[in-house]
Design a protein that fits this description.
The chain is mainly alpha-helical. It is 61% helix and 0% strand.
Length: 96
């Protein structure tokens, strides 16, 4: 992930631990998706409990890796909506 937006210079990670909220979003989406999927498959298919557990345990282990980038974007969006920055942040210094 870039340190800042190339157009508006918004720093993405504003402080240490800034994206802890993204972990909560990621966890919540994983749980909601897995539980919803479980109950939908339970209702409309004839998969056994063991097959369902294998499927959704695998999903719950892999989905957070694929979704984390989007969770970070959602967290940053929520932060910008709740606490917008009215003045542009200072220019970035290049680290060599």
């Amino acid at each position: 992930m870039r340190a800042a937006c190339p157009q508006c210079r918004l720093r993405f990670e504003r402080e240490a631990g800034y994206f802890i909220g993204a972990i909560y979003i990621n966890y919540g989406m994983t749980v909601v998706t897995a539980l919803s999927g479980y109950f939908l498959l339970e209702q409309f298919t004839s998969l056994t409990l063991t097959e369902q557990l294998v499927l959704w345990t695998t999903f719950a282990a892999l989905f957070p890796f694929a979704f984390y980038r989007y969770a970070k974007s959602l967290w940053l969006t929520l932060d910008c909506l709740i606490d917008p920055q009215e003045h542009p942040p200072p220019p970035l210094r290049r680290v060599r």
